[in-house]
Amino acid sequence: MSILEFLGLARPREGADAGRAAPSGDTETVRKIVTALESMDPDRARFVAAFAFILCRVARADLYISPAETRLMERVVMERSGLPEEQAILVVQMAKTQNTLFGGTENFLVTREFNKIATHEQKLALLECLFAIASDEMISTVEDNEISRICSELQISHEEFVSVRMAYRDHRAVFKKIQKPSE
Question: Where are the domains of the chain?
């Protein structure tokens, strides 16, 4: 149930979809992005929408998504989904907006849905992409912790998490030499 439905502000559904229940685990965030991708198979569109939202979840862990992170997410979505650039841009922008508005409540729901629809290999590929997004400058402790939480929600083992994280150890803030300002 969306917040608008809970508050009694949602418009009633019309047409053929009115009597049909939403798929289990479906969220308003994923449905909005899926609607924008109607030309795709609905299951594939749901996968792409959840994938993009989770990328945004890590990019926004520090409460700011930089233009560089946005461009990188667009490229990753384009490459991983086979979408044309215009659609990849749209998917990322919608995912960013939804994450900004509903991230606190939707993060777990979207990740849980991705866990249900993705193979283990797809989850590991997402993990690699999450570290790539977080390493735009350096991987902050907040981003590292968010990726760890996502791994737990996706049932990715700690050993697999550490293995992928090791490839990005030079980008982790905790290992960056702290430089003192010159006097």
Answer: 25-170
Confidence of residue 26 (pLDDT cuts 50, 70, 90): low
Residue 109 in this model has a pLDDT that exceeds 60: yes
Answer for the pair 143, 134: CB distance below 8 angstroms, yes or no.
Answer: yes
Provide Rg for the chain, Cα atoms.
18
CATH 2.60.40.420 fits 25-170, yes or no: no
- Indicate whether 51 pLDDT > 80: yes
Neighbours of 107 (CB within 10 A): 21
Q: Which amino acid is at 131?
A: F
Contacts (Cβ under 8 Å, ≥6 apart) of 88: 74, 75, 77, 78, 81
**Residue 136's pLDDT band (cuts 50, 70, 90):** confident
Burial profile 74-102: b = 16 or more Cβ within 10 angstroms, e = fewer: bebbbebbebeeebbbbbbbbbbebbeeb
